[in-house]
Amino acid sequence: MLFCLSVNYTPKGLEAMGKNPKTNRREAVEKLLNAAGGKMVSMYATIADGPGAMVIFDIDPAVAPAIVAVAASSDGRGRDGDFSAPPAQIPAGAANAPGSHLGW
Predict the structure, then answer these.
(1) CB 3.0-4.6 Å disulfide test: which of 1, 65, 91, 102 passes with 97?
(2) What is the pTM of this model?
(3) Is 76 exposed, middle or buried (0-12, 13-18, 19+ CB in 10 A)?
């Protein structure tokens, strides 16, 4: 099932990327998704409400809230509408995952 997660980087995250500009965020996200049995579909840089990223990924709906929890605990912060799935496909408990803001 496809999901979309969008985050803005925190000042701490931007500082870390500035110190190591060769950091490959896409590779890090792909490793996380692959370890959870998912697959990245696409990843985009965003500038709305500050610099960030939007990731579209395919994963078992039962695992998606864990991905959101990991993203919320990193140096990115969620923005309104940051975890999306068609309403009939939103996994149980996803609305309660740390950092998740469901939207469609």
Answers:
(1) 65
(2) 0.67
(3) buried
